[in-house]
Amino acid sequence: MDVAYDLSVFMEQLPELLAGVRLRRRTEIDLYSQGLERTLEFIPGGDLVEIHCLSRTDWIPNPSVEEVGTPALEAMLTGLAAEFAASLTVIGSHLAWMKPFSNWAPDPS
């Protein structure tokens, strides 16, 4: 995974993923960049979310399914969003004041 490119692919889909986790609905992240080429499907079930990794290359995920608690997953994703927004502010990017990043910024109080 190349953070300079692949992270942007993930971040552009983060708002929909966060909404899906919060609403407990099936959602996915398409990691479409060349070389990665896989889909992560998030399937809610009770207090857990199953994450299925579907490869579109010869690479085979092992394991292909992971489970995580819904509150823990939401906390991880929310934390990632907040840290990303904070980093935009630190580097002085004009994007920090645009949505969705401005909504993700941690509360300064």
In a nutshell, what does this entry contain?
With 109 residues, the protein is an alpha+beta fold. The chain contains 3 helices and 4 strands, in the order αββββαα.
Describe the structure in your own words:
There is one protein chain. The longest helix is centred in the first third of the chain and has 21 residues, at 3-23. The mean pLDDT is 91. The protein is 42% helix and 24% strand. α1 packs across α2 (70-90). The chain is α+β, with helices and mostly antiparallel strands. The protein has three helices and four strands. The protein has one domain. The chain has a four-stranded antiparallel β-sheet. It has helices spanning 3-23, 70-90, 101-104, and strands at 27-31, 38-45, 48-55, 65-69. β1 and β2 form a beta hairpin.
Count of separate DSSP helical elements = 3
The percent range for helix content is 40-55%
| Radius of gyration from CA coordinates | 15 Å
Class inferred from helices and paired strands: alpha+beta
General shape:
globular
Task: Extract low-pLDDT stretches.
Answer: none
